[in-house]
Specification:
Blueprint: H1 3-13, E1 15-18, E2 30-39, E3 47-57, E4 69-71, H2 75-78, H3 83-92, E5 101-112, H4 116-129, E6 136-139, H5 145-175
Parallel strand pairs: 2-6, 4-5
Antiparallel strand pairs: 1-6, 2-3, 3-5
Helix pairs in contact: 1-5
């Protein structure tokens, strides 16, 4: 499957079941832990469970607007794409991410023995019982999981944008000499 088909498939099939409740941090790295669920292409009736975290942080070098750095998403391995190609792919389509570093780390890749609907209920309940406000839960296609993770990140950043602006204005007002 080519990159365009993978992106469209992920956009159509990614569903955020439980968004992160805790706000993103503006001036330091924010870990975005997640649980990604997908119907198994190999074991029919089972669910692939990918647990990981994406660190969203300001890069060490100041970058121009809308030049994100994506790493750890295994695009090189799964789609034979470099990070520069991915940035260009998004830019050509008018998809803009803040100039941040998005570092994905997969903690585990497991199989839940049961249908996707049962896995969703299981992990949602697990997150609620542990009162986890940081971990997101979402579903998508197994063969383009990377794009589903990026859709999840974009959703979290967009939800945060209004609050970030308000916090920046409040900080500016506090520091402004009176």
């Amino acid at each position: 499957m080519n990159i365009q088909a993978s992106w469209e498939k992920a956009l159509q099939q990614t569903e955020i079941v439980r968004a992160r409740v805790k706000a993103l941090m503006m001036f330091e790295a924010t870990p975005l832990p997640y649980i990604f669920l997908a119907e198994s292409a190999v074991n029919a009736g089972d669910t692939v469970v990918r647990k990981g975290s994406v660190a969203v942080e300001k890069p060490a070098l100041i970058l121009p607007d809308n030049v994100p750095e994506f790493s750890g998403f295994e695009f090189e391995k799964d789609l034979a794409l470099g990070s520069e190609y991915l940035r260009t792919f998004f830019m050509v389509r008018g998809i803009r991410f803040p100039s941040m570093r998005y570092q994905n780390v997969t903690d585990s890749l497991d199989l839940y023995e049961g249908k996707l609907s049962r896995a969703i209920d299981f992990y949602r309940e697990q997150l609620q019982q542990s009162e986890d406000l940081e971990t997101g839960l979402f579903i998508g296609p197994e063969d383009c999981w990377q794009f589903s993770v990026i859709v999840f990140i974009a959703h979290q950043v967009l939800r945060q944008a209004d609050g970030d602006l308000k916090r920046l204005l409040e900080e500016y007002r506090r520091q402004k000499p009176g």
